[in-house]
Amino acid sequence: MLNSLIYCAKIFRTLFVSDERYLKKRFIKKLGYVPNFKNPQTFNEKVTARMILNRCPFYTTLADKYAVRDLIIDRIGEQHIVPLVGVYQKFEDIQFDALPHQFVLKCTHDSGSAQICTNKDNFNIERARTRTNQSLSMNMYYRKREWHYKNITPRIIVENYVDLYVDQATQSTITTCRVHCFEGKSEFVEVDVIGVDGIDYSNIYNTFWELQPFTVDCKKSMPNEISEPLKCTKMIDLANTLCFKYGYSRVDFLLTKDEVYFSEITLTPNAGRMVIEPKEWDEKLGQYWKSN
Predict the structure, then answer these.
(1) Where do the domains of the chain lie?
(2) Residue 1 confidence class, pLDDT cut points 50, 70, 90
(3) Which CATH topology does 26-78+163-292 take?
(4) pTM of model > 0.90
(5) pLDDT > 90 fraction of the chain, expressed in percent and rounded
(6) Which of 66, 56, 47, 171 is nearest to 108 (CA)?
(7) Rounded to whole angstroms, how far apart are CA atoms 224 and 202?
């Protein structure tokens, strides 16, 4: 009930507070400096300016986790996309008896709604129903003012479960690789890792797998060195194929021992409020982004 009331208040707020005003206030609160959206220089200024000024319908297609699949298959082939089990309009349409023993359930119109099932015998369907229905009832635009989410049709997809890549030396699991691309070229790979200690880490490398001297969103680099995954070069090649040829885009992948799977394309990471340390890297990354 409380979440519904908060969400309704956010919808009501859009009638009186413009996207620019809202995003500027949040920007200052999170990052500690006054942004210039008319002549953006830092990475976060440029991300937020894109959110305010660029209302390209194609961005909506990219953000739709179901609609984007056909685009990716056309560009890099079906072998690089996680097999689809089914697409559903509502939770009650899902026939759980027919699903594989392991799967991933997610909504197509938001971020963060994925639910991973590694053992169907222990999967809590009622909890999944509650979480999914809550996600289906909310439009992400009203939550974070990311316009490209506003017109996505809410749906549910179920995909095959993927056995993620494990670094043999550290026995750490690479959960996601985020390839940051500028002007049609991969520049940095943000690698999310779960260590054997159960702690989440994030290492940032250049395309030569050299650890970089900055971090994002207060994530700590892993203390032990991770070897370059076997499929890293292939992943970077795929990112170069999929990324925007001008400006910035981030292409996310899942790695297994033998395959590279597309995850998503992100144009406005962290809604333009990505904490970058040291702070001068906010401006340095902005310099890589040359065109609108």
Answers:
(1) 26-78+163-292, 83-161
(2) low
(3) D-amino Acid Aminotransferase; Chain A, domain 1 (3.30.470)
(4) yes
(5) 92
(6) 66
(7) 12
